[in-house]
Structures are given as C-alpha cells and as structure tokens.
Amino acid sequence: MSLTAAQCRAARALVGISQEGLAEASKVAKATIANFETGRRAPYDRTLDDMRAALEAAGVEFIPENGGGAGVRLRKADL
C-alpha cells in the first residue's frame, strides 16, 4: 500500500509530529515532505516507504482502501 499526501498529513497530526520531525525520523528532506503534502512532487517509492516506516514507528497504523477510502489511525496500545 502506498502513502498518500492526505494520509501523511493525517498521520503526522495523530502523533503530533511536524514536518521537521518526520524529516529527522525518516531521513527524508523536509522540502520533499512539504512538496509531497502539497501535491507539488511525487517522491520515489523508497522515500514514501521511509516516511511510512517512521510514522508507523511513532504509532500510526495505515488502513487500506476498503470501499470507504484509505486512512490512518493510532495503533492500539498493548496493555
């Protein structure tokens, strides 16, 4: 499953990570993230994978397209 710009913005909001924070965690340039989120640039698949992995490590779970649209949610905490 690929990462969309809307999912990226929503995921960052869920875990309270700025573009700068995601850039640091994913080793992706902040300008790349900003351009992706505003639709000005489509990053390479590997770059999207790095961003997604960093967001998942922060607690985001990505929901695949299931008729209602792809989305994001917080991962359920282990008790």
Automatic annotation (TrEMBL):
Residues 9-62 form the HTH cro/C1-type domain. InterPro entries: Cro/C1-type_HTH, Lambda_DNA-bd_dom_sf. One of its GO terms (molecular function) is DNA binding. It comes from the Bacteria. Gene3D superfamilies: lambda repressor-like DNA-binding domains. Signal peptide: none annotated. This is XRE family transcriptional regulator. It comes from Lichenibacterium ramalinae.
